[in-house]
Amino acid sequence: MSEFLICIDNKSTPASLIVGKVYRRLPDPEAGSRHMLRIVDEDLSEPDGYLYPASRFVPVELPEKAKRVLTAMAG
Q1: What is the pTM of this model?
Q2: Contact of 20 with 6, CB cutoff 8 Å
């Protein structure tokens, strides 16, 4: 799956996820086996991200320049 995802559903978490926003997926093989994704969400206080259902996101391929910028922003 792509490193970057677009949120398509923020029901029950509108303060944490914004529909239409691109989020970065963090590696977490255990989460994937449970149909979850580890995402760096709007609450930047947790650099290890939070788990969300994979059904709330769709993968997106970004141009290299956009990937560099978004990755650099994540610090």
Answers
A1: 0.84
A2: yes
Cβ atoms of residues 54 and 35 within 8 Å: yes
Q: Which residue in this structure is represented by tokens 């792509």?
A: 2
Express each pLDDT in 12-65 by its tens digit.
Answer: 888 889 999 999 999 998 998 999 999 988 877 777 889 999 999 999 999 999
Q: How many CB atoms lie within 10 A of CB 33?
A: 8
Residue 75 has pLDDT above 60, yes or no: no
Q: Give CA separation, 11 vs 3, 7, 17, 55, in Å.
A: 22, 11, 9, 11
- Number of alpha carbons in the 13 Å side-chain half-sphere of residue 67: 10
